[in-house]
Amino acid sequence: MKFKILLLLATILLLSCEQNEKINSNSNHELDHKILLDLFSEIETIAYSYSCEDAGEWFFTPYGSKPCGGPMGYIPYSNQIEIPQFLEKVNKYTNAEEVFNIKWGIISTCDITPEPKGVVCKNRIPSLIY
What we know:
By secondary structure, the protein is α+β, with helices and mostly antiparallel strands. It has helices at 2-13, 17-22, 29-47, 83-104, and strands at residues 58-63, 73-78, 118-122, 125-129.
């Protein structure tokens, strides 16, 4: 449940550089939130587009920007995707979340999100291990 809440918060707070232009002084909080959700949904679609058969074929990357600094979390991805484009989209999302946080005065806990030790496959779904 905590992961789902964290994931929802992360999706809400993340954007791409392209989306940063959409988050401007003329936009509203709900619209900015939707832009972030849409972008994170794209990231998840790409990240989970392959079944996890061999954990050795999976990596993870940080995503998002906590208001106090550091990533919101980590997301696994397969080595079968277009990795440079995926990481670029994650980076845009992270930058957009930072813009969102500043614009809307978002606050959060200042705890440090632990980095996973790796990825395991559970029922063909990638899962991060800590």
